[in-house]
Amino acid sequence: MIKINKLEVENIKRVKAVKIEPTASGLTVVGGRNNQGKTSVLDAIAWGLGGNKYRPTQAERDGSAVPPYLHIVLSNGLIVERKGKNSDLKVIDPNGQKGGQQLLDSLVEELAIDLPKFMNASNKEKANILLRIIGVGDKLQALEAQEQEVYNKRHTIGQIADQKAKFAKEQPYYTDAPKEPISASELISQQQGIMARNGDNQRKRQQLTQIQAAYASQGQEVSRLNALLYEANLKYEQLSKDLEIAQKDTLDLQDESTAELEANIQQIDTINRKVRANLDKDKAEADAGDYRVQYDALTVDINRIREQKAELLNNAALPLEGLSVEGGELIYKGQKWGNMSGSDQLKVSTAIVRKLKPECGFILLDKLEQMDLQTLQEFGSWLEQEGLQAIATRVSTGDECSIIIEDGYVAGQELPEEKKTWKAGEF
């Protein structure tokens, strides 16, 4: 794991002459008041290791007659220098072989020297970086897309079920209504049948009246026409038989009432309205039940997909215990990025950046004054535990600072007046 063993900076931005040997593991805090050169130290390291895209806009210190000089010794023996009028880069390996920016790029993670680039990225970009590192980005993205699709479908089903249930609840229900709508033509047909049967009864009554009249007339005829008694008696006997039959036929006759049918015909619209209302209520309740079954089934699918996501992340080599991705965002100890403490944000960022290029064992951090002393100590302890090196700046002159920068120098390293002219690379 590559770390920074030694650093010499001269005449870069606000730095006049600074020499630092950062602690190998843990936090090296460069302290001092504002505008003393703290951030210039970090900018010099970024320029030295990250290439000319990190070159300060005005690299040379104002008022300096000597060009910028930068000398970095890495733990793997590499020596990185920028010096001369053009601040040319020179990289020398332990065997004396020369290299260049390409060699540094292969060893140094860009985000390690530009951590704000990661910390200021969007929540989705941070999560995508982590997922790309652990190699599950495509699978997780597919599962999340599947989960969103099922969730949207379930949401729609739930809304329909709620609407159906609400509609069913608001519908009146008539217990006195039949199960099916009444047909007017059917009622009229029933009425016509009853009327036909009643008409037949009337004909039979008329026939009885006629027979009774004929019988009476014939009796008179018998009295009047004794001469025709024989024929009259025969006919009379026949009429007597007919009379007996007619009396028997009409004895138990009873006319049917059409009053109920007439009332139903008159109230058919009211009855059918009740029937339709009952049918609508029954169907809405049935539909609501069906949609609830679908909703529950989709809930099972969503839970299954979420279990697959959790299993995917649980089996992945995450760079920090308690770190995960949910809904396309980083989650650490149950908190999203915006709710993490400053210390936790730095831990997460450092762990992810380290995972990007495990051989790069250091990071640069600016403006750690946002941390209180306890949080700073906790972060430093975590760095030591992980074997990581961090070089950071803090607006402070307290004991938590490893060195103090004053007016471009390390406090205690200022040169005497007579020695404040030097050659590049020589204090």
UniProtKB/TrEMBL annotation:
Coiled coil region boundaries: 229-256
Keyword Coiled coil annotated: yes
Domain Rad50/SbcC-type AAA, residue spans: 6-274
Superkingdom of origin organism: Bacteria
GO biological process, one term: double-strand break repair
Keyword tags: Coiled coil
GO molecular function: ATP hydrolysis activity
One Pfam family matching this protein: AAA_23
Name by which UniProt lists this protein: AAA domain-containing protein
Organism for this UniProt entry: Paenibacillus algorifonticola
Species lineage: Bacteria, Bacillati, Bacillota, Bacilli, Bacillales
